[in-house]
Amino acid sequence: MTLALLPGLGETIPLQAYLALAAVLFCTGVWGLINSRNAVRVLMSIELMLNAVNLNLMAFSNYLDGQLIRGQVFAIFVITVAAAEAAVGLAILLSLYRNRETVDMERFNLLRW
Amino acid sequence: MTIASTTQLICILVLSATLVLGSLGVVLLPNIVYSAFLLGGVFLSVAGLYLLLNASFVAAAQVLVYVGAVNVLILFAIMLVNKKEDLSAIPGLAVRKLLSGLVCGGLFALLVRVAFTTPWALPGPLPVGEEATIRIGEHLFSDYLLPFELASVLLLMAMIGAIVLARRDVFSSDVITGEPVDQNLIEKARTPLLLEKSTLETTP
Question: Fewer CB within 10 Å of terminal CB in chain B, N or C?
């Protein structure tokens, strides 16, 4: 079978698969955070990174802490804080757009020098 | 290999393909509306992964909060600020993209290496499975009570802060005469404060 090429994947899904997936998600988020010109896309990249961290927490909670699932509690708190962050971030973005008439990140340089 | 593990394998393959392609689409697609909808797909596939990890409550919370609230909020923001604007070209943009891609690739290699070389204490204790919701409730009202209450305060602060930041200082009636104000006039009369020209004038 082709699955013999991936040892350990046949029986149950290893913890490392989830960790690698979260790493992909996190690095995509970091790249988008650096390179986005649109401010809304920057917020979306932050959400991607938060989801990657949550995925890590949940994987550790299931594989290493199966009885006291503290990772799930932490993930709930992270979701709460992410919702608050999204609301405030988008409000700041709206206020910024109203004052500067643009969402280009390169032109938000009022506080730079 | 049992049927259950085969199903699990197929599920995780499909979910990870959706996750990776969706997140790449969120970052790379030029049209931001497509990005926002793909972000909803990414959130949904993360919720599916939570289901595979025996966490039904957090999966439901993920769907409700992320897909139902955050993604809709982002779509609202896109609709409110969606103006066609020509982005001015920046010198060295390609170099910047390449460099940040290299940095992110290095970060990814580091993370994967750590994940595969660390001797995890596997197999850990058996997962509680369907009792997870009960355990979360016990945690939230015993040893995580203070963070739980602080989270409610944080949500209240975020709500008030968002309202204060995003509202317009427009009155429905004139302060002096008490007559109703034509909202359209206010819309047209408002002047953006911090445009490039005004900043150039004020900077010494």
Answer: C
B-chain residues near A17 (CB < 8 A): 12, 16
Residues recorded for chain B: 204
Least Cα distance to B101 among B35, B42, B28, B26 occurs for B28
Q: Is the Cβ pair A16, B116 closer than 8 Å?
A: yes
- Which A-chain residues 38-77 have CB contacts (< 8 A) with chain B? 38-41, 43-45, 47-48, 51, 54-55, 58-59, 61-70, 72-73, 75-77
Is B53 in Cβ contact with A66 (below 8 Å)? no
- Average pLDDT, integer, range B69-94: 84
- In sequence order, the 6+-apart residues with CB closer than 8 A to the CB of B12 are A13, A17, B49, B52
What one-character DSSP code corresponds to residue A104? B
Give the tokens for residue B149. Answer: 């209450």
The verdict on a CB contact (< 8 Å) between B39 and A97 is: no
Query: What gap in Å lies between CA A28 and CA A111, rounded to an integer?
Result: 28
The answer to whether the CB atoms of A45 and B26 lie below 8 A apart is yes
Q: Which two tokens stand for residue A65?
A: 């802490």
Distance of alpha carbon B99 from alpha carbon B106, whole angstroms: 11
pTM of this structure: 0.84
Please say if the pLDDT value at position B1 is more than 50: no
pLDDT band at A107 (very low <50, low <70, confident <90, very high): confident
Closest residue to A44, CB basis, from B5, B26, B126 = B26
Spatial separation of the C-alpha atoms in residues B38 and B166, rounded to whole Å: 26
**What per-residue confidence (pLDDT) applies to A5?**
43
Model pLDDT for residues A52-103, shown as the tens digit of each residue? 999 999 999 999 988 888 999 999 999 999 999 999 999 999 888 888 878 8
